[in-house]
């Protein structure tokens, strides 16, 4: 398939995936207002290009938490990549390495932490949910550090799973041949069955996610790792300041891809206040609704150090495995190069709020 933009993979993936898996990856919570608003916010912004600037060379390289990256486009944490391709997260990791991009693996990865690390040639971070079983959480953290992961990303916006109606209507459960192999099977049993009007993922979250998580608990995690700790799910200036006060090393502005609180702020709308509240030594990332290189430029101009993409990666994986993911990343990198040149801001550091007329 000749893909000219990431959306080409969306159309092709829809034809290849079972309908319940398609709804699982595409859907949001509730009436899916936040899911739609994530994209709409990008569409509402306008760019202010400068002219008569030497743009013969563009440069989108950066350093993030000590890692050199060729692009500010990274891969967001997502579970169960083997739903989309037999090689799962190892194919995704190889593609990220080819692009010089960051990959954030999920705690519910369907390949082992060690095999993902073995496939990766670029930096890897590991995403965590706060589990009731602290021993299981600590064991995963220890394995990640031993395998060479460079940061931990704690998802803080999921004390419970949002009401994902597509999954409930489909009675969606993870098929038996796809497993979260880095955790005790007993912890994951509920994800493989679904009651009428519910989903296996929602049932599993009710059983295993610890809703008592508070800022004080970060000390427990800090005591168990030397890795940087990134908090994902920050949407307000208040929480950005608290993250800094409690020792976070970075934050991700995120509404979980529109899959948690329906009606929450679009990520791009929340970004300026979070970026303004974060101290200079606290990198701010963004996910949610990024689909083009121009979207990446907008996010960086409004305060993001980098962006993480989710659904487009899974579209590429479903269509053509490693090569599909690599092509999605290459398209976004090429689009970002075009945006930098046409904006008259050839380096990432040249992007600032003056480049954008906000929505």
UniProtKB/TrEMBL annotation:
<dbReference type="InterPro" id="IPR012133">
    <property type="entry name" value="Alpha-hydoxy_acid_DH_FMN"/>
</dbReference>
<comment type="similarity">
    <text>Belongs to the FMN-dependent alpha-hydroxy acid dehydrogenase family.</text>
</comment>
<keyword id="KW-0560">Oxidoreductase</keyword>
<dbReference type="InterPro" id="IPR013785">
    <property type="entry name" value="Aldolase_TIM"/>
</dbReference>
<keyword id="KW-0288">FMN</keyword>
<dbReference type="InterPro" id="IPR037396">
    <property type="entry name" value="FMN_HAD"/>
</dbReference>
<dbReference type="Pfam" id="PF01070">
    <property type="entry name" value="FMN_dh"/>
</dbReference>
<feature type="domain" description="FMN hydroxy acid dehydrogenase">
    <location>
        <begin position="1"/>
        <end position="359"/>
    </location>
</feature>
<keyword id="KW-0285">Flavoprotein</keyword>
<protein>
    <submittedName>
        <fullName>Alpha-hydroxy acid oxidase</fullName>
        <ecNumber>1.-.-.-</ecNumber>
    </submittedName>
</protein>
<dbReference type="GO" id="GO:0016491">
    <property type="term" value="F:oxidoreductase activity"/>
</dbReference>
<dbReference type="InterPro" id="IPR000262">
    <property type="entry name" value="FMN-dep_DH"/>
</dbReference>
<dbReference type="InterPro" id="IPR008259">
    <property type="entry name" value="FMN_hydac_DH_AS"/>
</dbReference>
């Amino acid at each position: 398939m000749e893909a000219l933009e990431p959306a080409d993979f969306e159309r092709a993936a829809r034809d290849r995936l079972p309908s319940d898996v398609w709804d699982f990856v595409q859907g949001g919570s509730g009436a899916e207002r936040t899911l739609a608003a994530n994209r709409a916010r990008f569409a509402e912004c306008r760019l202010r290009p400068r002219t008569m600037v030497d743009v013969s060379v563009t440069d989108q390289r950066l350093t993030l938490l000590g890692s050199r990256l060729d692009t500010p486009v990274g891969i967001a944490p997502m579970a169960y990549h083997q739903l989309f391709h037999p090689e799962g997260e190892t194919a995704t990791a190889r593609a990220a390495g080819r692009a010089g991009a960051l990959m954030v693996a999920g705690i519910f990865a369907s390949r082992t932490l060690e095999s993902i690390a073995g496939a990766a040639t670029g930096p890897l971070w590991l995403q965590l949910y706060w589990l009731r079983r602290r021993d299981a959480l600590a064991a995963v953290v220890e394995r990640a550090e031993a395998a060479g992961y460079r940061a931990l990303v704690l998802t803080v916006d999921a004390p419970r799973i949002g009401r994902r109606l597509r999954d409930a209507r489909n009675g969606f459960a993870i098929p038996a041949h796809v497993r979260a192999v880095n955790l005790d099977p007993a912890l994951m049993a509920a994800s493989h069955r679904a009651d009428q009007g519910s989903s296996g993922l929602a049932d599993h979250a009710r059983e295993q996610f610890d809703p008592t998580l508070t800022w004080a608990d970060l000390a427990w995690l800090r005591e168990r790792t030397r890795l940087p700790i990134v908090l994902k799910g920050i949407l307000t200036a208040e929480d950005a300041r608290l993250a800094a006060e409690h020792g976070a090393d970075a934050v991700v502005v995120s509404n979980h891809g529109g899959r948690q609180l329906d009606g929450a702020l679009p990520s791009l709308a929340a970004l300026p206040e979070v970026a303004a509240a974060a101290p200079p030594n606290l990198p701010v990332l963004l996910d949610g609704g990024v689909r083009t290189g121009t979207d990446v430029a907008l996010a960086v101009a409004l305060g993001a150090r980098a962006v993480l993409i989710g659904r487009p990666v899974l579209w590429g994986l479903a269509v053509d495995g490693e090569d599909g993911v690599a092509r999605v990343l290459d398209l976004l990198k090429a689009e970002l190069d075009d945006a930098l040149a046409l904006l008259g801001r050839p380096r990432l550091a040249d992007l600032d709020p003056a480049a954008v007329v906000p929505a």
